Amino acid sequence: MARNASAMKYHKQSEKRRLANKARKSTIRTFTKKAVAAGESGDAANAAKFEKVVQSLVDKAAKGSTLHKNTAARRKSRLAKRLKAMQAAPA
Fold this sequence. Notes:
Layout: H1 5-40, H2 44-63, H3 69-88
Helix pairs in contact: 1-2, 1-3, 2-3
């Protein structure tokens, strides 16, 4: 554990950042699941809406240091590919 004032402050800051990053990642996962669920149920409009929200959240996370830019690109690509495959399957 931190013993001096500057180390304690740094620890407090890093804990605050960790919790914020955790919340952002959780939100991304939640909306990704909603997009996939909408795609599986055949609701293309809702799936597209959730996909747009996920892309926005992922871009914001990559803009900071929550997600690496390549990870963000991969997540957006995989989601788009998955939703596109779901829309093509019933047709």
